[in-house]
Amino acid sequence: MKSFLNEDFLLETETSKRIYHNYAKGMPIFDYHCHLTAKEIAEDRRFSSIADAWLGEDHYKWRVLRANGVAEEYVTGTKSEKEKFLKWAETVPELIGNPLYHWTHLELKRCFGIEEELAPETAEQIWEKSMKRISQANFSARGILKQFDVRALCTTDDPVDSLEYHKQLKEDDTFDVKVLPTFRPDGALNVYVGDFPEWVQKLEKASGISIETFSDFLEALSDRVEYFHEVGCRLSDHGLDASFFQLANHETCDGIFKKAIHQDVMTNEEVAAFKTAVLLHLGKLYAEKGWAMQFHIGGLRGTNTRMVESIGPNTGYDSMADFTYAEDLSKLLNELDTSNHLPKTVLYNLNPRDNYMLATLAGNFQNGDVPGKMQFGTAWWFNDHRDGMEDQIKTLANVGVLSRFVGMLTDSRSLLSYTRHEYFRRILCNIIGKWVENGEYPANIERLGRMVQDISFHNIVNYMEIDL
Q1: Helix or strand run (H / E) with residue 236
Q2: Are 363 and 399 in contact (CB under 8 A)?
Q3: N or C, which end of the chain is more exposed by having fewer CB within 10 Å?
Q4: DSSP letter assigned to residue 313
Q5: What is the CATH superfamily name and number for domain 48-134?
Q6: How much of the chain is in helix, strand and coil states, percent to nearest 5?
Q7: What's the pTM?
């Protein structure tokens, strides 16, 4: 029987062990999609306790705490940090088969140097050990990034953001991790949301452009793309959770925009037409700037209205949607490609039933200009566990070119989540190693090592055209 979380964790063959330990393990990290903030890095955030570092913004943990019968006061409520930690310690032993069990112990081991299993009987001891580590000078936002050899990361930013902390970090000669903004214009697409008029006012203020018409609106967005580009942005991101393709002329879109400003009722077709026009406009800008575009597709958000109204959005009440979008996505990509304005694009699906649909659709729009221009993105959100990662990797290998894959990201609000890159690399090396030992690929270790290093780091650096 193997010991828990040993050096060969998740590595089932000698080839897997060899390529992981000799090639993948020591690679640096480019976390090209996360929800850290430039502010916490600029200010070199420190933590008051392991609960502050672990539980403060982690809806993955919040969901399983609730599922284990833990009252909300111990999840997002007013109980002390230690009381919340002790409830987490009670919950962790129940999580057999859940990636949170692995992530928890990887984080204890890598971030805190703690080898013990987290359980009620060890909780006090682990709390005391963790407090000693947290008190050390290098246990801060910047220290953690350096510990994991993070060379660059991309935050997720609203177009109306000033990016003041990104600019501060860019000018800081004492810190060499690149912290780049990502243009996330969900506010520009969500015309059906009640605060759309207020968001437009923020856009007006940020751009300095008076917004009265749809043309003004697009001009203001263009201004913000230019601003983000100057600060270092090379990546956009869009959450698409409903129908998003319906061609309409500019006059029609202007009418829809004015209805949204006045909060008049709109049809689903009008909402889709507005989204389409904005996405096409932005897609062309991204292509001209050399940016990559990300689509995260398939969330069903804020389903428990009682709890969302009580504690807010993004608190663990979202799940997988099941709407169909193959035709919408194909038409949108094709519309951009027809005018030669399709940017580099990374596609992520939340519902795993869409794996082959998305992977094959990406293949329709590859070209000879950029290797892996169209990416079937890494297993996202509810799929970033071993089964989900294996399915995504094997799907891509079956219908695409795995060696051009841009690899893993954290998609996390936690600075401790960089162990997920290790988790992914072990899974990747295990799959490849098993293929080799089954006689499905030659045992060319040097080539395999180069391949996993590319997927772990080099591919995304080249894809983003970032000088590191």
Answers
A1: strand 235-240
A2: yes
A3: N
A4: S
A5: uronate isomerase, domain 2, chain A (1.10.2020.10)
A6: 55, 10, 40
A7: 0.96
Residue 194 has pLDDT above 80, yes or no: no
264: tokens are 């008049």
DSSP letter for each residue of 409-458? ----S-GGGGHHHHHHHHHHHHHHHHHHHTTSS---HHHHHHHHHIIIII
User: With bands split at pLDDT 50, 70 and 90, how would you rate the model's confidence at 193?
Assistant: confident
Tens digit of each residue's pLDDT (9 = 90 or more) over 315-367: 999 999 999 999 999 999 999 999 999 999 999 999 999 999 999 999 999 99
Residue type, 464: M
Tokens for 420? 């997920």
175, 169 Cβ separation under 8 angstroms: yes
Long-range contacts, 379-386 (Cβ 8 Å, 24+): 380/296, 380/348, 380/349, 380/350, 380/411, 381/299, 381/350, 381/411, 382/319, 382/320, 382/350, 383/350, 383/352, 384/99, 384/411, 384/420, 385/98, 385/99, 386/10, 386/99, 386/423, 386/427
Query: Which token pair is 368?
Result: 């000879």
Q: What is the residue whose two structure tokens read 């297993």?
A: 379
Beta carbons of 235 and 182 less than 8 angstroms apart = yes
What's the CA gap between 253 and 223, in Å, rounded? 20
**How is the beta sheet containing 344-349 ordered, strand by strand?**
235-240, 292-297, 344-349, 374-376
Closest CA to 466 of 234, 237, 289, 287: 234
Question: How is the chain split into domains, by residue range?
Answer: 48-134, 141-464
Token pair for 446: 């040097």
- For β-strands 150-154 and 178-180, DSSP reports them as parallel
* Residue carrying the six token digits 């799907």: 395
Q: Is 22 exposed, middle or buried (0-12, 13-18, 19+ CB in 10 A)?
A: middle
